[in-house]
Amino acid sequence: MDKFDIHGIGMTSQRTRERLIERLYEEGLSNARVLEAIRRTPRHLFIDEALSHRAYEDTALPIGHNQTISQPYIVARMTELLLKSGPIDKVLEIGTGSGYQTAILAQVAERVFSVERIQPLQERAKARLAELNLRNIVFRFGDGWEGWNALAPYDAIIVTAAASEVPQALKDQLAEGGRMILPVGQGEQQELLLVVREGDTFHQHVLESVKFVPLLTGTLS
Fold it and tell me: Is 221 a known active-site residue?
């Protein structure tokens, strides 16, 4: 039995989740580990109860503080792209948010280091992830533009809000051969980028158009 099955009742049944997995597969996602993590993770725990009936729709939903939980497609897509180069030991997540993307990462990487600038969101995410008994996550309350230099370098970095440009601090914290996935742009003009480090060179690849909340500076307690 999957360790998260205890939450799979009623509107959040396994059948409902299977329909979401089928849709993601039809949209071109194929990494078995990522799809299994999406299947097992009770997304309804990461949103307000009033929206729980929409938890397994492939759509972004509000989580308060002008933030959203990303649609399952983009969560799966970004995670799959990080895994393209092989197993991940250390992954840095910028923007813990609801903790949903964090939960997916924790199931496919050895260690997850997650930074969040909005303290109430981070506290709720910590509680949810503890409930799921995911113990390979370390949290930092801080400015995502700065990353987490004390624990660098990272095999992979994922940014879950749109930066106006690729933050230099995050590039510096990427390991040799490491991969960073992030949305870049403002308003309706955002693109998902893959950044791969090769020595002091950073190769950038534009992947697709996306829509994220902006990556802001500073902290909010």
Answer: no
DSSP 55: T
Give the C-alpha separation, 182 to 212, whole Å.
Answer: 10
Burial 47-57 (b: 16+ CB within 10 A, else e): beeeebeebbb
Q: Which position among 13, 52, 70, 164 bears the catalytic label? A: 70
The whole-model pTM stands at: 0.94
Give tens-digit pLDDT for 76-109.
Answer: 999 999 999 899 999 999 999 999 999 999 999 9
Q: Band of the pLDDT at 208, cuts 50, 70, 90?
A: very high
- For the four alpha carbons of 18, 21, 23 and 25, in that order, the dihedral sign comes to negative
List beta partners, residue 181.
Answer: 158, 194
* pLDDT at residue number 5: 52
Report the candidate in 151, 129, 133, 130 with the shortest Cα–Cα distance to residue 142. 151
The region, left, alpha or beta by phi > 0 then psi within -120 to 50, assigned to residue 147 is: left
Is the N-terminal amide bond of 72 cis, ω within 30° of 0?
A: no
User: Are residues 156 and 92 in contact, defined by beta-carbon separation less than 8 angstroms?
Assistant: yes
